[in-house]
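Batch manifest line 280
LIGAND: adenosine monophosphate
JOB: complex structure
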Amino acid sequence: MQVVDSISAMRDLSRSWRRRGERVGFVPTMGNLHDGHLRLIEAVQPLCDRVVVSIYVNPLQFGPKEDYSQYPRTWDADLSRLQKRSIDAVFAPVDRQMYPRGREDCCRIEIPVLGDLLEGAARPGHFSGVATVVAKLFSIVEPDIAAFGEKDLQQLRVVERLVADLNLHVHILAVPTVREPDGLALSSRNGYLSAAERAAAPELYRVLCQARERLRTGESDVPSVENEAMQSLVAAGFRPEYVSVRCFEDLVAPRESCAQHVVLAAAWLGKARLIDNLKV
Ligand code: AMP
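JOB STATUS: finished
ARTIFACT:
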C-alpha cells in the first residue's frame, strides 16, 4: 500500500495503472475510518484492479461555526485498518496542495436547487464544498469507479449530478448504509456522543422506521408523518432540524410520478449532528 501526499505522484500512479489496462476504484473519505467506509472499499474491490482511498478533511465543506477543527483525525489507526484490506494507495493531500491560494480564493462548483435543499439549507455552501473537492479528487485520481454511501444520500445525489452535468468519465457506485446492531448509522460524528447520548441515538433510526411504516401502510398525510417524527425526536432528547419525505431519485417533494420515496432526517444530540435516511 503506497501512501501518497502529492497530487502529481497520485496522478502518475493512477495513470501508470490505467496504461496497463487496469481499472481504478476510488473511495473518498475524511478519515476516522469505520465499517461504513470499509464497506465502500469492499464494494469497489471486485469491480476494479486497483483501489485508492483518499483521506482528506476538506475545509471547504465546513461552515464557519461547524466542527472542522474538532473533526476526528486518526491517521495511525486509519492506516493500520487500510493495511489489512489490500488497498493499493492512500491519497492524503495537505491543504497547501489542495487549496494553494487558500479556501476563499478557489474556483467552486455550485449545485443549484439540489444543493440548496435539506442539508444544503441547514449548511449553506456545504455541497459546493463537497462538489468542488470531489471534482478535484476525480481529476487527480482519474478513477473508473468511485463509491459513495447512501448514508449521505443527498451528497450521493450531488456527486451523481456533478458527474452528469460536467460529463465526467466515472461510474458512481451507491453503497447501502452500514448500521450498528441497534440501528444507529455508523458515522465519525457518533464519537461526539456521551454514553447516555449514545444510548438514546438509535431512536433516530427507530423514528425513521416508524415514519416508513406509516407511509407503507397507506398514510397519505405526509406533513403529519413528518411532524409526528419531529415530536418523537424531541421527546427522545434530540433537537431535530428536519424530518422530510422526498422522492428517492431527486430529493424533491413527493409527486405522482415518483416511484420510490425516502424519509430523511437531521437532528442534534448533544454536540453531534446526526443524519440518516430510509427508503420507503
Ligand atoms: P466521510 O468520511 O464521513 O466523509 O464519508 C466517506 C464516505 O463514506 C461517504 O461516501 C459516506 O457516505 C460513506 N459513509 C459514511 N458512513 C457510512 C455508513 N454508515 N454506511 C455507508 N457508507 C457510509
